[in-house]
Every structure is written in structure tokens, then in C-alpha cells.
Design a protein that fits this description.
DNA damage, 36% helix, 4 domains, DNA polymerase, domain 1, DNA-directed DNA polymerase activity, 15 helices, Alpha-Beta Plaits
Length: 442
């Protein structure tokens, strides 16, 4: 697949070519073999083994791959004019389009953009293909989302016959050739800096942050570089006169913890490049949810209830398919002025039943039906576990057993004749979005 490499010249200052993987014999500006300018060099290049891999504009890249006519067009993947941007390609990003931006603002910034509704089934399929290629490199793969993961490549040099940095470059070429999308990778000595590095030179980037340079590099960065420092917390730090990571490096751990509690401890360690977390393979999902954005804001329960039922059925289907259940039901609402409301209820036993998820969500929804107009509705479960102890018989609510049996019969019919073979009275013949997007496993 790739050109045979000469015996490794393990001089990190000379590096290797990311396009033909040839080790360089001197500090040239272009590859001595193929002429490519994409050379990887770093004093610690061959000593580092902890990587973070992130697919570039994942959803949009898949759509461009599947429709070559979109190659040079700005592409936005999202939920129509009323939805938000899921992913924007790099051409659209040049115009100022960003993920999670309201679609109307994205189209104001880039009116010539092609908007494509998300196809989660396709994205999940490609995500699994990328994951399989990762797991061929090392068993230590910790997924963070559908398109990114940490990898620990320590001890794999003998297996692959090359240092982890070259293994990452070869992986990126394999993904491009076999799957038709691109990835960026960060390489470092800890998870925090590996993830930071992967964002540096997107798309098709390979960036390295070594241990010797960590303190100096971090000192110049804004505090928002640290995980957990969002807008609100950054504003608190700003009020205390703290704007850069370098300022945190000069503060005592006790002082930071007195001011900011547990987060102060994180600030102390990460500002110094100290992160001893290991890569944990096959991290379990934390929640399963589904949501939909309406074409027009609505407040009437008569219109919200059918959507809630349809979303509950989709979440339930995903739970059953995965053999898991959730103990906490979470209702998500977004008002017309983009303010988010989340309400949750802890159940006595984990559930995977659509009826139980729906009834719990419905009770939470009734409490929010105060005339407020909503642009988004979502339902989900967290506190996940195996489904072997889910939904035990309820000695108080004797009808719950009958509803569970009826739901099982509905599942059987849908599995045989399709999703629309049987509908409940909540959704049958109703308008609005009674066919919302597939559930999202967070």
C-alpha cells in the first residue's frame, strides 16, 4: 500500500514525510523521496505515544465524499432553517459558520451554502469503520464521540515496526484511501495536550506537544484552553484578573482550590501540563437521547405530546437494541429565545420502555406548559446499566405489566412489518414531527 521505507533514521529533527512515510536524512524543506512539504519533525517525535484523533468536519466530509459535486461548495449539515448547525465544512467556516450556530445566522453568513439534513445512520456507520481502523492499531482506544478518540500507542512499536508518530500518519493515509474522509491527530505525553494538539492544524493535521515545551507553550494560552473553562467560568476568572494559563502557573494550589473548589485543583494541574489520566478502552455510553427542532415555535400540549411520544419510542428502540436501560429520564426544552431548560427525574428502577420514558417525560413537560413557546423538544435517559434488572413488575400499578406486554407485541410487529406497522393513539394521524431524528448516543 505504501512505499517501502528504508531503515529508520531515528533523528527526530530530520523527521519523516507524512505522504510517503519516508524517514528523512537531513533537515530538508521537502521530502527527499516524493517532494511533499508535509514533513513531521519534533525533538520528542519518536518518544511520545499518547494520541488524540479527530475526524475533520465529519458529517460534511461524508456528504462531500458521497456527492462529488459538493467538493468545492460550502456545505452545512443541520436541521433546516429553524435548526442549528451540526457540522460545517471548512469552506463554510471561512465565512464564519460554526457548529451549534442557529441555521438562520449560518445562512446569513454564508447564503450560498448547501444545507443537508443529518443522516445519523450513515454517520454512525462510517464512525464505526473509523473506530475499527483505530482498534487495528492498539486495543487501548477510548472513544469520546462518534468521530474522535484517544489512543495509547505505547508498546506497539514492535508490532508495527515503526514509532507511534509514523503509525498515526499511516493511519491518516489509510482513512483517506479507504473511507474517503480526513482526520487530524495530536501526539503528546498526556491526554489533555494530545487533544489540544489535534486542533492545531486542521484539516489533515499532525501536531506534537512535547513534555519539555509544555510549560512554555501553555503559559501563552488563554485560560479557555483548559477543559471545563467555558464562557461563564472564564468571566469569573477575568473578574479575578486571570486571563492566561501562565498566570495560573504562578498561583498556589491551595489558593486556587479556596477560590474555585475542585475546579481550582484542575486549573493547578492542567496549567502545568500535569494529567495522569489513562486511556480507558470501550468507554460506556453515558446517555441515550433524541431531540427535534420545530419549524415554528409551539406551546400547545396537543402539539408537543405526539412529538414527545415519538422521541420516547426512538430512545426506547435504541436502548433495547443495545441491551441497556436508564434510571434517570431527562426532558430538554429550548425556548424561542434559545434559553435551554432541562428537567430530570430519577426512577426507582432502570427502564428501557417507551411508555415509562414517555409518561415520566410527560409529567415533566406538563410542569413546563405555562404558555412558553418552544423551538426544541428532547427526551433521553442517563445512569445507564445492563437491562437485566430493568422494569420489574409494579405491585402498585397493575396496569404497567399490561402496558409492557403490549409494547413488546408492538415491537414484534414493527420488527416484522416496519416502524409504521403499529402506532399509538398519541402519534397516529398527528401532524408535526412524529418522525424525529434517530437517537443520539452521547
Amino acid at each position: 500500500m505504501f512505499a517501502a521505507m528504508a531503515a529508520p533514521v531515528n533523528n527526530p529533527d530530520h523527521g519523516f514525510c507524512r505522504d510517503c512515510l519516508t524517514f528523512q536524512r537531513s533537515e530538508t524543506r521537502r521530502c527527499e523521496r516524493c517532494g511533499s512539504p508535509r514533513l513531521a519533525r519534533h525533538p520528542e517525535l519518536y518518544r511520545l505515544h499518547l494520541a488524540h484523533i479527530d475526524c475533520d468536519a465529519f458529517y460534511a466530509a461524508i456528504e462531500k465524499r458521497d456527492n462529488p459535486a459538493l467538493k468545492d461548495r460550502p456545505v452545512i449539515v443541520g436541521g433546516g432553517k429553524r435548526g442549528v448547525v451540526s457540522t460545517a465544512c471548512y469552506i463554510a467556516r471561512i465565512h464564519g459558520v460554526r457548529s451549534a450556530m442557529p441555521m438562520f445566522k449560518a445562512l446569513e453568513a454564508c447564503p450560498e451554502a448547501v444545507v443537508i439534513p443529518p443522516d445519523m445512520e450513515k454517520y454512525v456507520r462510517v464512525g464505526r469503520e473509523v473506530r475499527a481502523l483505530m482498534q487495528a492499531l492498539t486495543p487501548l482506544v477510548e472513544p469520546l464521540s462518534i468521530d474522535e478518540a484517544f489512543l495509547d500507542l505505547s508498546g506497539t512499536e514492535r508490532l508495527h515496526g515503526m514509532p507511534p508518530a509514523v503509525v498515526l500518519a499511516r493511519f491518516a493515509l489509510t482513512v483517506e484511501k479507504e473511507l474517503g474522509i480526513t482526520v487530524s491527530a495530536g501526539l503528546s505525553y498526556c491526554k489533555f495536550l494530545a487533544k489540544v494538539a489535534s486542533d492545531f492544524r486542521k484539516p489533515r493535521g499532525l501536531s506534537v506537544i512535547g513534555e519539555a515545551e509544555a510549560l512554555g507553550f501553555l503559559a501563552e494560552q488563554p485560560v479557555t484552553l483548559i477543559w471545563g473553562v467555558g464562557k461563564a467560568f472564564a468571566a469569573s476568572l477575568e473578574r479575578d484578573g486571570i486571563r492566561t494559563v501562565g498566570q495560573l502557573q504562578h498561583m498556589e494550589r491551595g489558593d486556587l482550590m479556596r477560590r474555585y473548589g475542585v475546579m481550582g485543583d484542575r486549573l493547578y494541574h492542567l496549567s502545568r501540563g500535569e494529567d495522569d489520566r489513562r486511556v480507558h478502552p470501550d468507554s460506556d455510553a453515558k446517555s441515550v437521547s433524541a431531540e427535534t427542532t420545530f419549524d415554528t415555535d409551539i406551546s400547545a400540549m396537543a402539539e408537543l405530546v405526539p412529538v414527545l411520544r415519538a422521541l420516547s419510542e426512538k430512545v426506547s428502540a435504541r436502548l433495547k437494541k443495545s441491551g441497556i436501560a436508564g434510571r434517570t429520564v431527562v426532558l430538554k426544552l429550548k425556548t424561542q429565545d434559545f434559553k435551554l431548560r432541562t428537567r430530570n427525574r430519577h426512577l426507582g428502577d432502570p427502564t428501557r420502555l417507551a411508555d415509562r420514558i414517555f409518561q415520566t417525560g410527560l409529567d415533566l413537560l406538563r410542569r413546563e406548559a405555562d404558555g412558553t413557546k418552544y423551538r426544541l423538544l428532547g427526551i433521553g435517559v442517563n445512569d445507564l446499566s445492563d437491562d437485566d434488572k430493568a422494569d420489574p413488575p409494579d405491585l402498585v400499578d397493575i396496569q404497567s405489566r399490561k402496558r409492557a406486554l403490549a409494547e413488546g407485541a408492538i415491537d414484534t410487529l414493527r420488527g416484522k412489518f416496519g416502524k409504521k406497522a403499529v402506532e399509538t393513539g398519541y402519534t397516529f394521524g398527528k401532524g408535526r414531527s412524529t418522525n424525529p431524528p434517530e437517537p443520539i448516543e452521547d
